[in-house]
Design goal:
This protein is mainly beta and 402 residues long. It has 5 helices and 33 strands.
């Protein structure tokens, strides 16, 4: 009796490959095709040179690395982009973007949405015509994502935020330079973020931590902003009219609005004409009954303060500064909600002024005489450090191109 065993064919795993793309004719089609044809594990290697593109690019394949020859050598040039969308849109997880530049995108420069474990490493994003409201809103823009790392990047000229992380969780923003944007770095409606060892200078506002209503994820919390240099944020606000950041006063260092459990510590803060640290409530009308417009459990401590407050950029700021001897204190709290509802704790090297105002009023409408020093409050333990998956740190540790 013969036994007939079924023949089982086991396909060998497809080896990861490098797809090389160089500038030149038909580069739009060749580069987009490479991003479409890439398989998990592949590297799309961009050669040195200027890639002149006429449309946005997209990547929806997981576990792909897009790598250039260096942020000063490989440039994706979107000046001739026909549409108004992103320069590069990523909708897949475990993607590493590193060592290239994006210039003059019509919309956001690089956006990743609804993904996990995204690494932005050694990138440069720039709008080369200087600050204009027609520049793209966001430079690096991960949103609705989990496990985000932005490391060693440079962003200039965004009409909203150079580095923006929104509605996301478990975020590390480190070793970056943000300059010439409306907001240098912004963490919005997010949970657990560490922002450290960055330089935010010559923006309208250096580092913003916001929570806004009517979004799928609200109740931002557990944010640490530490060991950054936030100085000389002196660019006039060029955000399009109506944007929330259009209300950020020129000369703001760190601004915390309507967020919870935010710790601002060991930063170097100086030459910010409005204020070094501002803690405020959200003042616009809203209808979402679940939204809390007040900042809560905010800790400001152990920062190094230089000059601030000599030319406040908000309505009534100059009059208020004059009433206080010529300048605002380096730390400003609008007083909305009162101490019992907000628990704003300051234990710092610089004085703080609080206006103790009803939520709907501005300083010029109802300023009360004299500053209020805040030195004690309910203890607020510092949030735990954000720990990213080992695969992300390994991707960063790989030898890149400089």
């Amino acid at each position: 009796m013969k036994l007939f065993l079924p023949l089982i064919l086991i396909a060998a795993p497809i080896a990861a490959k490098t797809i090389n793309v160089a500038p030149g004719p038909d580069v739009q089609e060749r580069l987009q095709t490479a991003l479409i044809d890439a398989q998990p594990g592949d590297v799309v290697q961009l050669a040195a040179g200027r890639f002149v593109l006429t449309d946005g690019l997209s990547l929806d394949v997981a576990r792909v690395t897009v790598r250039g020859a260096g942020a000063d050598k490989t440039v994706l040039d979107f000046k001739g982009q026909q549409g108004a969308g992103e320069g590069l849109l990523v909708t897949s997880s475990d993607v590493v973007l590193r060592d290239f530049a994006v210039e003059d995108a019509k919309g956001d420069a690089i956006k990743s949405k609804g993904v996990e474990r995204t690494v932005y490493k050694n990138l440069r994003v720039e709008w080369t015509g200087g600050p204009k409201p027609t520049n793209g809103a966001y430079g690096l823009y991960p949103v609705a994502s989990k496990w985000v790392l932005i490391d060693g990047c440079i962003v200039k000229g965004a009409s909203d935020a150079g580095i923006y992380v929104g509605q996301s969780q478990d975020i590390v923003v480190r070793n970056n330079i943000a300059s010439g944007n409306v907001a240098g770095i912004e963490i919005e409606n997010s949970y657990r973020a560490d922002v450290f060892h960055n330089i935010a200078s010559h923006n309208t506002g250096g580092i913003l931590v916001f929570d806004l209503p009517n979004l799928p994820q609200m109740g931002g919390h557990s944010i640490r902003v530490f060991e950054n240099v936030v100085s000389e944020n002196d660019t006039a606000n060029f955000a399009p009219k109506g944007n929330i950041v259009a209300s950020v006063p020129n000369g703001t260092g760190v601004m915390v609005m309507a967020n919870r459990d935010v710790h601002v510590f060991r930063n170097a803060l100086s030459e910010n004409a409005t204020v070094n640290v501002m803690v405020v409530a959200y003042k616009r009308p809203f209808t979402d009954a679940t939204y809390n417009p007040l900042p809560r459990d905010v800790v400001v401590r152990d920062n190094k303060h230089g000059r601030a407050g000599w030319a406040p950029g908000f309505v009534g700021g100059k009059e208020l500064a004059a009433a206080m001897g010529g300048s605002l204190a380096p730390i400003f709290w609008d007083g909305a909600g009162g101490r019992e509802r907000t628990n704003i704790i300051v234990n710092d090297t610089a004085p703080v002024v609080s206006l103790n105002l009803p939520e709907a009023l501005t300083p010029v409408e109802q300023a009360r005489p004299g500053p209020v020093d805040l030195t004690v409050g309910r203890p607020v333990p510092e949030p735990a450090a954000v720990v990213l998956p080992a695969s992300m740190e390994a991707a960063v540790a790989e030898k890149g191109t400089k």
